[in-house]
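Propose amino acids for all 261 sites.
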């Protein structure tokens, strides 16, 4: 795998870690996969506070898709890595997980396709992945831990391709701020797997087009999840990932497109 693809092991470890502690997120699949791969993450990447953050971020995405996907919606997870959201949420919707071919090849070791669940091998910057999805009415699209590896123009093109294909769509996406992207050159766990360049978005409206519009910013580490931590760890985490400084670094955006016909 290339350096960007190797970043998938950081959230995998985080979800396995919190699941093993029986807090925030229950993900036996992550525990199982991590137990087998044991990718050699370094110190920052295996920080328990980063693991808590990864678990919380995943839980917020889980809650969002469970609340926003109606029975007719497709669910599409772009940059799925080895995430088991399809199994965790147990939704009955038609579901597509999309990632680079080398990631999907590894994913197929642990996950099996069926009538309602498909994996697509593709670079999401190439709109060919959309050609493998026949349905075009309604979709909920999740982009977790991926926007920071795409330039602004690449994100705008992705949004344009999505809006051309679907009549109704919701996009839920986390992002770095511009400041966080610049600071990442000096201190970021993804540096430990070889990633040296990431990108940030301070103004989500730059990704809008004539169909897709920015709706609102969400809390990426809400208090109800921080409160699952105790004592000293809770206090430290709240300062690192729940305080005002952190909120300037890590963003969570919702976009929406509705057919006006």
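Proposal:
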């Amino acid at each position: 795998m290339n350096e960007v693809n190797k970043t998938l092991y950081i959230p995998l470890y985080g979800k396995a870690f919190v699941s093993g502690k029986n807090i925030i997120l229950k993900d036996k699949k992550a525990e199982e996969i991590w137990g087998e791969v044991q990718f050699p993450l370094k110190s920052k990447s295996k920080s328990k506070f980063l693991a808590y953050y990864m678990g919380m971020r995943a839980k917020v995405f889980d809650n969002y898709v469970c609340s926003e996907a109606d029975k007719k919606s497709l669910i599409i997870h772009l940059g799925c890595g080895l995430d088991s959201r399809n199994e965790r949420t147990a939704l009955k919707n038609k579901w597509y997980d999309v990632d680079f071919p080398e990631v999907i090849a590894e994913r197929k070791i642990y996950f099996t396709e069926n009538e309602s669940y498909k994996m697509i091998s593709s670079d999401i910057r190439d709109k060919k992945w959309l050609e493998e999805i026949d349905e075009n009415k309604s979709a909920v699209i999740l982009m977790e831990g991926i926007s920071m590896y795409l330039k602004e123009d690449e994100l705008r093109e992705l949004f344009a391709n999505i809006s051309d294909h679907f009549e109704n769509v919701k996009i839920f996406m986390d992002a770095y701020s511009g400041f966080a992207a610049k600071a990442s050159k000096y201190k970021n766990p993804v540096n430990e797997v070889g990633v040296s360049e990431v990108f940030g978005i301070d103004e989500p409206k730059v990704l809008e087009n004539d169909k897709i519009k920015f709706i609102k910013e969400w809390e990426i580490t809400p208090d109800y999840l921080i409160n699952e931590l105790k004592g000293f760890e809770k206090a430290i985490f709240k300062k690192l990932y729940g305080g005002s400084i952190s909120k300037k670094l890590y963003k969570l955006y919702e976009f929406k497109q509705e057919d006006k016909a």
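The first strand starts at residue 74 and ends at 78. Confidence is low (pLDDT under 50) at residues 188-195.
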